User: Fold this.
Amino acid sequence: VGRLLIIANDVVAKRMAGPGIRCFELGRELAKAGHQVTLVGVGATDLASDSLKIVPRLSHADLDRLARGQDAILLEGIALVRYPSLRSVPVPLIVDLYDPFPLALLEQEAHRPVAQQERESLEVRKVLRELLRGGDFFLCASEVQRDLWTGALLEAGRITPRTWAQDSSLRQLIDVVPFGLPGNRPEAGTVRRQLPVGNLDPNDVVLLWGGGIYNWFDPLTLIRAVGRAVEEDPRIKLIFMSTDHPNTSIPERMWMPARARQLSDELGLTDGHVYFNHDWVAYSERSQWLLASDCGVSTHFDHAETRYAFRTRMLDYLWCGLPIICTAGDRFAQLVAERELGWVVPAEDVDALAQAVLEMAADPNRRRVISERVSQVAQDMTWERVSAPLRRFLTNPALAADQPRHAWIHRRQPSRVEMRTVEAVRLLRRAAYELGHQGPVATVRKAGRWWGQRGRRQPPAR
Assistant:
């Protein structure tokens, strides 16, 4: 039994996206293994769990005190920037790199002026450098990702004679922990076809886009393909499960949801064959949407982010036994093709995608056969199975063999004044960044929201 602190890089609440879900589910799995798990999210939380303790975002001083009482810390994203004192905490740091965020952010910010892109890219490289230098054990979501991050660790000076002597396979430095899925498939029961959007008829054939619409996805080709397909088969319906995001800072940077809605309107498909649900679906309610659908769909562009991404929405399709239509180019497309789990089409190919949709809609027997294959594959991807490398590390968590930071760090607990100073500097840097990117009006509004949330924070865990 050990004490584990998990620091998420996103909202951990009833309505949460991939990063929050991953931290929550890994926390629950590790709690089952006997660990005492505390999960810290971004902002407030309305989520409760019997197996782990969930707390809202903490101040630097409170987080530092909590961290020093742990046996290990698992973190993702910008946690080392948000809580810089973690760099000097004498506790093994597990860095989760399942999201290749430097590549995703390049695509996310591509519509901005080049000068802003350069500033953003510089900040992202700093964050990545801190993570690679600070971690003792690294997680990724696939072997392809492991190749990417192994190269990054080599460049960062983390693969040395000491790490090689400890384990020349480097599995003790970085290992694969994919996104997982629940162990039991949900039953359809009476929820089939009962959704807030769509006015679905029992004979309709429903395609589900089971997640957010981000700039690195390609819903536009899909909408055009559906427009062509419904000319031959008007039963076809496409539902986008969520267009908003539980993290309020995300929509400001995402232009693709508005572009997708605009295209659907222009083609006369909105609320007839294409439906947009604006609210983010609660994590515990997503099975209703999946079970009301005949096929899960995910389309993207042909760029580097695609190759290294791990599309978490695909796990939900597997969980509910949905046949899949997807774009070629990533790990899941390979799985769909190799195990015959659906249809794989070239990127931005409207004709091929429309044909795949029509084939899927025309043959319910084929859908049933594919669904059985999907359910078989899902059995190998449960959270219990995929978390095995992390559980092994936590049986005896240790600092990395090459890690020099623990030889020279000043291990006394920083004073309250020092922690307040660090927090003040961070806030000033954030304010300067927001002024440069968003302007004074948006910055003042964000500051007001932050101050209001600060006053409502719960007392820190002890």
Notes: Residues 3-180+385-428 form a domain with the Rossmann fold fold (CATH 3.40.50.2000). The chain has two domains: 3-180+385-428, 205-381.
